[in-house]
Design goal:
It contains ten helices and two strands; from the N terminus they run E-E-H-H-H-H-H-H-H-H-H-H. It has about 190 residues and is mostly helical. The chain has a domain of about 90 residues: Tetratricopeptide repeat domain (Serine Threonine Protein Phosphatase 5, Tetratricopeptide repeat, Alpha Horseshoe). The N terminus is likely disordered.
């Protein structure tokens, strides 16, 4: 398996080739595949990372579970995301994932509760995640407002703005293009 893109082989794939038993390398590969839209491969590799080391340090935030639930959501398999979210111990990630997944399942009230929790408790540190929920809901004004907050907060997640699939609904909005220009991300 070789990942091609941006003119060459991804270093994450090379890391897996060099040390195929390293769960960290698999999780890095999962993230790359997720952002490239290779959802089936990303899901398979996420399961591989979980299989290799279910008690891996990242399991403190359950990174593989977070990725897997996001992948299922993007694949239109929101029901499959729910059991993965139950294994996520970090309250911020869990609220974010529940807000997205409940919305996808048509459980708007539960989604609203999770979103309110995220806004109330984590607005100062997770504006980007809040923006992705609004974008996923096709609530463009809310998404742009929260992206602006994330930019003002210097939220490190802003590095993924250009490739974050949960923001796809914003790609045709001129305000999103202005934000990308402000971010000055590499092409």
């Amino acid at each position: 398996m070789q990942l091609k893109g941006y003119g060459g082989l991804f270093p994450n794939h090379r890391a897996v080739d060099l040390d195929p038993l390293n769960a960290d390398s698999w999780e890095a590969l999962v993230e790359t595949e997720l952002y490239m839209g290779q959802l089936d491969q990303s899901a398979a590799d996420s399961k591989k990372a979980l299989e290799l080391d279910p008690d891996h340090w990242a399991s403190l935030i359950n990174l593989s579970r977070i990725y897997l639930s996001r992948i299922y959501l993007l694949q239109g398999r929101a029901q499959d995301a729910l059991p993965e979210i139950e294994h996520v111990h970090n309250a911020t990630y869990r609220a974010h994932l529940y807000a997205l997944t409940y919305y996808a399942l048509g459980r708007k009230k539960e989604s609203d509760v999770a979103l309110r929790e995220l806004v109330m408790k984590y607005h100062a540190s997770n504006a980007f995640e809040i923006a992705t929920i609004y974008a996923f809901r096709n609530q463009t004004d809310g998404a742009v407002e929260w992206l602006d907050r994330a930019y003002a907060q210097r939220d490190p997640s802003m590095m993924s703005t250009k490739v974050e699939p949960l923001l796809n609904s914003l790609h045709n909005d001129p305000r999103f293009a202005v934000l990308l220009k402000k971010l000055n991300l590499p092409t």
